[in-house]
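Can anyone check this?
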Amino acid sequence: MGHLSTHVLDTANGCPAAGMQVTLQRLNGASADTVATFTLNADGRNPGGALLDAQAMAVGPYRLLFEVAPYFRARGALLPDPPFIDTVQVDFGIADAAGHYHVPLLVSPWSYSTYRGS
């Protein structure tokens, strides 16, 4: 059974990015339809579990928007204006609706990294 998940780790503070706002969008040509918007829990994950469950999984292009600068400002980080990293946009594709897709993000105010996790 396929599903989509994410997990965000704050590498500047060595902890999950609890409280970060994230938006999942389905891309359709030049438009982007919002599927879900949520706030990460204490473990840096969606409190509702999978972003897409087996029934909602569909082949196609997607986007995750991670609101990095507001998260770090809320933690008391002094960021320049404009911040070096504001919103991290990760565009990815689901090629197999029965597959497991995990999109982790490692982030600080100055860098980020992502990959297809397991």
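Reply from J.R.: I decoded it. Residues 3-110 form a domain with the Immunoglobulin-like fold (CATH 2.60.40.180).
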